[in-house]
Task: structure prediction
Amino acid sequence: MPGELPTLVSEAGSGNQAAWGAIVDRFSGLVWSTARAHRLGAAEAADAAQSTWLRLVENLDRIEDPERLGAWLATTARRECLRIIRMGKRELPSDEEWMFESDSGEAIEARLLTRERDESLWRAFDEIEERCQALLRLVCAPEPPSYEEVAAALGIPVGAIGPTRARCLDKLRRLLDEQQADLR
Result:
């Protein structure tokens, strides 16, 4: 709704908790997907998201164009992620994700097939360039951000997002096909 964001930003700046909650609800997916696009672990992504919201609280009265709040948050989240990466706090205690899964009640065969499929996808995903990985993480988020927000989060032109996404998905498909051919 046009005009909604300026009102929310103004009211949040005046201490209205409902307005602040509406801003957080609206943009939390963007902030989280930006953090996850930088391949941070869960704890580091949470730190980046928390720091991003803190920066907004500190600068809420300085937001000149509230309609561009999403782009501001994406840029801030990206900077927080890069700060965390620079600080070298990217430690993962284990890359064995299956160790932390709880039993879902599925038959073991179904779990094995799902795990094999997922491992195959992630192997192919790890082979594509980091720029593609970051872009695909953002556009595949549960609530994908707008192209303007993606552009701000990744520092690329808005017009390059669609074609780049298509090339990245094509590369991912080719790698998966190659994996399947190797299994035959």
